[in-house]
Amino acid sequence: MSRLALRVLAGTGLLTGTLLAAGAALGAGAPVALRITEFGQGPTLVLVHELGAGRLAWMPLARMLIGRYHVVLVDLPGHGESPMPDPFTLEAAAAALDQVLAKQRPDSTVLVGHGVGGVIALLEASGHPERMRGVAVIAAAARSPNPIPDQQREMFLRQIDEHYADFVRVMFMTQGRDSAQGVAVHAQAALVPPATMKSYLRELLILDATGAVKRLKVPLLFIGAEKSWPADQGWPEMAKRYGYDEARDVSWRRIGASGHYVPQDQPDSVASALVDFTSRTLAPAPAKP
Q: Environment class of residue 65 by beta-carbon count within 10 Å: exposed (0-12), middle (13-18) or buried (19+)?
């Protein structure tokens, strides 16, 4: 694998350095139907997983939420039992997610996304704020810490094609909090068809979500991992680095003792952050005097 590929995968990694093009046209054709699992009663939390995972990856967190929420777990396009749009774009993925949100009660729904799922959640929240009361993103960047210059992009894509197995192994194994988790998440990601994974990666190399963040009309919660958020770094610095410095209504929570897979590493802390966030975003507006 080239030094360019290794540089991009270093540090926070490609998964937390993904970007999204806000306001772009949706993909052609009708949105695909995403597979979901839902349980519980109360306000709705729609949970969208990371690239290479599946909807059941949320179960450690979901078990802590079902006592007070209606929890909806979603398989991303091309993952699990969800079909892949053709042609694929992240905008088409957001359009598919919108069909799930359209079936919920907008006055009591919060959208939650992890990594690439968080990027897609940002696009959905920016494009359809009427579907929800708030959006939470977990370990998802709106601006890449390791951007690839335009002139090197084609070379990078060739590296993915020529060394796909090694690329995916490095990309996912470096995201684990330890080697055992890295092996587990890589094994899960290896189940995703290579054509699907490459389609996501091609999209992620050319996109920018900072405009979507700036245009958000609903409250935003950013949940960061210790692995990518140093203890001595304050929110203003982190926000600028990850592209949230122009968010208008944002709160944040840093979760200690966690790798990139924060919902699995520290489900109790993530649940607490989401409970606090939903208690604010779903609270009735104060009566006017």
A: buried
Q: Give per-residue burial for 269-286: e unless 16+ CB within 10 Å, then b.
A: bbbebbeebbeebbeeee
Domain residue spans of the chain: 16-152+207-280
Query: What average pLDDT does the chain have?
Result: 89
Distances (CA, A) of 106 to 69, 173, 201: 14, 37, 31
- Which amino acid makes up residue 32? V
Report the top-level CATH class of 16-152+207-280.
Answer: alpha beta
d(CA 99, CA 275): 25
| Helix pair 150-162, 194-204: axis angle to 10 deg | 170
Q: Please state the φ and ψ torsions of residue 166, each to the nearest 5 degrees.
A: -65, -40
Contact 110, 46 (CB under 8 A): yes
Query: In which residue are the tokens 């209606």 written?
Result: 70
The strand pair at 70-74 and 36-39 is best described as antiparallel
pLDDT tens-place string over residues 54-73:
999 999 999 999 999 999 99
Give per-residue pLDDT as tens, 218-264.
999 999 999 999 999 999 999 999 999 999 999 999 999 999 999 99
Estimate to the nearest angstrom the gap between the alpha carbon of 279 and the chain centroid.
Answer: 22
CA distance 93 to 32: 8
Strand 134-138 and strand 220-225: the pairing is parallel
Check if the beta carbon of residue 243 is closer than 8 Å to that of residue 213.
yes
Backbone angles phi, psi at 2, to 5 degrees: -75, 165
User: In the predicted model, what is the mean pLDDT of residues 111-134?
Assistant: 98
3-state secondary structure of 223: strand
- How many beta carbons lie within 10 A of that of residue 250, not counting itself? 17
